[in-house]
Structures are given as C-alpha cells and as structure tokens.
Design goal:
Helix content: 40-55%
Bound molecules: S-adenosylmethionine
Radius of gyration: 25 Å
Shape: elongated
Structural class: alpha/beta
Length: 418
C-alpha cells in the first residue's frame, strides 16, 4: 500500500540580536548562560592554514563589511598539537568560559577524535578547567554515501558540563569503587530499559555511557589523592605514557566491554578474553550484521582501549571497513604484545593452516605445540572455533574458506583426547 502525507510547516520570522566576534577564547569578556564549543581535535586539522586559504579571497572585503573584524589567521593563538601545549591551551579556554558563566549555567562541548589518548586527555582538561561532566550523547555523523571516501568524522560526542562547585577530595582507592558502581549501575539501567527483542542501544552507546559515567564520578572531585593537575597537564609524556586520571577512565570503559558479550559466545569465555581479542570477535560479529562503517571500529578501539588496530583491517575504506580473515592474516605477527601473542591469534593461525592444507592436523599440531597449557585452554579454543565457524554470514564470501576450515578444525579438536 502506498501512503502519502503532507505536512505544512508554518512560516515564522525569527529575529534576534546577534553579534559575531572573531576572538581568542582565552580573552572572552562576554558572559553567557550556555556555551557551545567545537574545539580543535588536537592535531587533526590545521585550521589556521585553512583560514589563510580563504583569507586570500576575503581579506579585502572583510574590513568593509565588518570593520571590527581582523583579517589575520592569528596562527600564534591557534589551539593545536597533541602535547602539553594543546592541553594547557584547552584548559585556559575552558577555564575562561567557565568563569564567564553563572553557577547554574552549562556548557556543551562537541568532541570527536579517533585517538584514545586525546580522548582520555579531555577528561584531564575539563577537570582542570573546574568543570564537571553531567551527561553525554553521541550523534552519528557518518553519511552513507559512496562519493565520499577516505577518513572522515564518524560520530561526535556531546558532553554537558557544569561548574564544579564543591571541593570534594578523594583517594583513588575510594573513587575507583565509586566509578565501578556508577558504570555498572548505568549499564544495568540501560540494559533493563532496552527492548530485548529489538535493541535500540548499540555497543558504542554502552561504551560511551560507561565513559560518561566514569567522567561523572571523577570530575565531581576537586582533588584526587596525589594527582597534581597542573603538573599532569604540563608534563611531557613519553610515547604510550598516559596520565593516572586517564588510566582510571580507561579501566572504567573496560568494565563496559564485559557487558558486550557477542551472541554465540559464552559469557565466561568472553570475560577471559583480552581487549584485542574482544575487538576482533566484535568485528566479526558486526560484519555479520552487515556493518562496514569505519567509525564503529574506532568506537570499539576507543572502548576496549586499543591503540593500534589498523593492521588487523582487511579494508579500511569508509563504509567498507572489515577485519582481515584468518587466511589474510596468514602467519604474520604470531608472538609479542597485544593481539599478536593472544590465544585467538594462535587459533586464527591454526584455521589458516587448516584452510591452506585442507587438513586440520597441522593446525591441531600447531596449537598443541605452541599453546602453553593446551589442555587447560582447550575449552576456550573450542568456543573460539565454534564462533569462527558459525558467526561469519553467507554474504561474507571472503570468510567462506576459513569458516569451513574452522569447522573442520573444531571437529578435530573436540575429538582429540589425552
Ligand atoms: C572543529 S573547528 C570548529 C568548526 C566549526 N564548528 C564549524 O562547523 O565550522 C575548531 C575551531 O577552533 C578554532 N580555534 C583554534 N584556536 C582557538 C582559540 N584560541 N580561540 C578560539 N577558537 C580557536 C579553529 O580556528 C577552528 O575554527
């Protein structure tokens, strides 16, 4: 049946007094009940260079139309970088805006960044600026178009911030259980609220909710044990080094991943898996649901606290993102930190061997030789093989050979005895 409907939008004339001031946020003089900001994303885009490109056209006209504006890119004032200078400059901006806001005012900060470190740094920045997170929402910004290729912003998080008014002090040992409880309470409430048959919340929603719950608890404190905010902000970090505050927030987000048990895998097995293994298992699950957006992988990496996952991708084109299959991973990276040294990685290699030789024996021999305590891990190996042989959907043709191999190997591992 074809239905058509018509809705006439009433015409309204909207007028207001507005003023646009090109200004360094740090010298804002204006007071407002609500500040909406969209800060630069660390070193993602060189806005000052972009403005110079446009100034080439506007430079002469702007002073005529807007005599009080300047026509300079003000490079020196740009908040940029991903280091201590970025953190300090951001705090200066947000401190100023908090100062120029009444006690019952609030701020809305849009934030998008793929890098888990920049993201967790935001907590430190807002905390140091005297602000407290009270809510968070994500909006999906990925467009389903084929004409846009490459990396672009997939989803934006909107954080609601209020002034932190009381000077609560706490020890990490007291705050951590509070963070855990708040995260669990938040996730349990969402699970209860959601429709079991047709869920509305996705994994990314749970992860973000956990992140926001942790931020709510942590940023409510004025001082945490021995954390010296000023020092943390200005400290030059070695690659991979984080701040104590972001470590606490990362751990909180990891709690969320315990809730995200994929269909077809036992809860107890899921809880034993390392973050990188969970990332891969989840990647296979979402692909089976026809999900190919790069942003979803970014959200998972952020949620599971994984830094480098690009090497696991078989395709990273926008809207075509997917993981490498066992046969595409081949024998690459079989030992070391993270995914390379994980049980799942060894299982995938055994699947690849089985597929390559069309015989499960070399795969089984490999697992028995290489896995320390093979018999203790056998139950998990069986669960992973079962998952890999059933999860990939029929439309994932690149998985066909490997799902068959996983099935073959599963039968052999199950039939094997001491
Ligand atoms: C993510 S962009 C905002 C994009 C904007 N919402 C839009 O839709 O076009 C971040 C902006 O912050 C500006 N910015 C950088 N440093 C600043 C500072 N010190 N004070 C105010 N704005 C600054 C950059 O020039 C850039 O335009």
């Amino acid at each position: 049946m074809k239905t058509s409907w018509h809705f006439s939008v009433p015409e309204r004339s909207i007028s207001s007094n507005s003023e646009i001031l090109p200004l360094d946020a740090r010298i804002t003089n204006y007071s407002a009940d609500l500040w909406v900001t969209d800060p630069p994303y660390a070193d993602a885009v060189n806005y000052e260079e972009l403005s110079e490109l446009f100034l080439a056209w506007y430079e002469k006209r702007l002073p005529v139309l807007f005599p009080e504006w300047y026509t300079d890119s003000k490079r020196a004032l740009a908040v940029k970088g991903a280091d201590e200078n970025f953190r300090v400059a951001m705090v200066e901006c947000y401190k100023k805006l908090a100062e120029k806001m009444p006690d019952n005012g609030f701020q809305l900060v849009m934030f998008t960044h793929q890098d888990v470190d920049v993201w967790s740094d935001l907590a430190l920045i807002l905390w140091a600026a005297g602000l407290r997170v009270t809510a968070a929402w994500t909006i999906a910004t990925e467009t389903d178009t084929s004409f846009r290729t490459g990396k672009y912003v997939q989803g934006t998080v909107l954080l609601v911030l209020r002034k932190r008014r009381d000077s609560l002090r706490g020890d990490r040992a007291d705050i951590w259980p509070e963070v855990q409880n708040e995260v669990r309470r938040q996730l349990a409430a969402m699970l209860e609220l959601d429709d079991k048959e047709d869920p509305n919340f996705g994994d990314a929603d749970y992860q973000l909710a956990a992140y926001a719950a942790a931020l709510r608890v942590v940023t409510a404190y004025g001082a945490i044990e021995d954390i010296d905010v000023e020092r943390e902000l200005r400290r030059t970090r070695r690659p991979g080094e984080t701040s104590p505050l972001s470590d606490m927030i990362r751990s909180a987000v990891r709690i969320a991943s315990d809730f995200l048990v994929p269909d077809g895998l036992d809860k107890t097995i899921w809880r034993q898996l390392a973050p990188e293994e969970r990332f891969y298992i989840k990647g296979v699950e979402i692909e089976a649901h026809g999900e190919y957006r790069d942003g979803v992988y970014q959200e998972f990496a952020r949620g599971f606290g994984i830094r480098d996952y690009r090497w696991l991708l078989g395709s990273d084109a926008a809207n075509q993102t997917r993981l490498k299959t066992a046969s595409e991973l081949k024998g690459r990276d079989l030992s070391g930190e993270g995914f390379a040294g994980s049980l799942l990685r060894q299982v995938l290699f055994a699947v690849y061997k089985t597929a390559e030789e069309d015989d499960p024996q070399p795969g089984l021999d490999y697992l028995k030789q290489e896995l320390p305590g093979y018999w203790d891990q056998r139950r998990t190996v069986i669960a992973l093989l079962d998952y890999l042989s059933n999860k990939p959907s029929g439309s994932m043709t690149h998985w066909k050979k490997d799902t068959e191999a996983a099935h073959l190997l599963l039968g052999t591992v199950e039939g094997d005895s001491l």
